[in-house]
Amino acid sequence: MKMKLCVLTFLLMTILAQAQTNSLTALLQQGLFEEQANQNLDAAIASYQTLARQFDKDRQLAATAVFRIGECYRMQGKTNEAAGQYQRILKDFSDQGTLATLSRQNLAGMGTAATAPKANDNADANLWSRLEQLDKVDVEKVLPTLVSDSVLESLLKQRNEANAKLAQLKMDYAPEYPDNIRQKALVDELNRQIAEKVSGIMQALKMRAEISKTGSTLSGNQPPNGASTDEESRKSAAFSR
Questions:
Q1: What is the mean pLDDT of the chain?
Q2: Tens digit of each residue's pLDDT (9 = 90 or more) over 119-175
Q3: Contacts of 231 by beta carbon, 8 Å cutoff, 6+ apart
Q4: CA 168, 173, 176, 181: dihedral to nearest 10 degrees?
Q5: Residue 125: partners with Cβ closer than 8 Å, 6 or more residues away
Q6: Which one of 80, 166, 172, 220 is least enclosed by Cβ atoms within 10 Å?
Q7: Cα 27 to Cα 148: distance, rounded to the nearest angstrom
Q8: What contacts 106, CB < 8 A, 6 or more positions away?
């Protein structure tokens, strides 16, 4: 009976996940349409932010499904298979606190040690590794979906409005028109403030990544004289230019 319940639960979650995927796709398409076709960047940002929040909910569903698979295996007496699912929770869904705690407890009860994540599996380190590969424009698009910062969001909104007004002024008046010059100066100042804010956030994320890797560096993997961070510092500083 318990096994049938597990199977039915898994099938139901699969169906819900498929429906949710369609919803996420629709949100992405809506955001792209607003951004590319309508040039309505505020509406596009709203769609992308909703999509990012929904992704977090999807992770909860996926983690729950993996954990329930482990429970089903455990009830069947397939301890190796169950342990594999609990280990996956700790590796891929360590941010899901309750499920991660239960997985550790189950592993301990089964006499299986929880595998510590490798340095390159660390979420903060992975995030920084991907961010530092993006160019300046892409970083500005991605950061609001990763970090909740009201100042950055406000600056980006102000710049969108300022750019729209500047575009209209350019259509109506010559470049040397005083209002054009003032509006261009406003856009430049907003760009400077945004670059400064993005640089600060990037530095904070870089510090988080370095702290999260402290365990591995203390074990003797850290190059002498901080050589490993020189290139990273240079890349972070580039966003403030």
A1: 75
A2: 444 667 777 777 878 888 888 888 887 777 888 888 888 999 999 998 988 888 888
A3: none
A4: -30
A5: 119, 209, 212, 213
A6: 220
A7: 20
A8: 70, 74, 82, 86
